[in-house]
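We modelled the chain as a single entity of 107 amino acids. Its sequence is:
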Amino acid sequence: LNPGLMGNLNYLALSQILPSGWEIHNNRMDNNPIGNKYQTPRYQDIRDDRVYTHFDLASKQKVTYVLLLNASYVGRYYLPGFSCEAMYYGKAQTRVAGTWVEVVPKK
């Protein structure tokens, strides 16, 4: 959500690092889109353990991006915090604290 205090924000980079026991599902590889209710980013770089999402955000606009993940192993994992910042405007940035996540078998 862009509260609008800095106007429109362009060239935002959302960095998401994921635990090593999780696999990132790349929808572009199997032509299986998530659906129309979520936005498509300008560019998305999907790596083995992280995803970089690049987008613009107009004043008062909110966007939602979805990652499909597969928890490969049961266990307790630390999910690092996510960060988002404007690539060419250092004053526009935010961070979310990391947290511990428990992966349990499906019942």
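As a brief sanity check on the tokenised model: The mean pLDDT is 90. The chain is about 5% helix and 45% strand.
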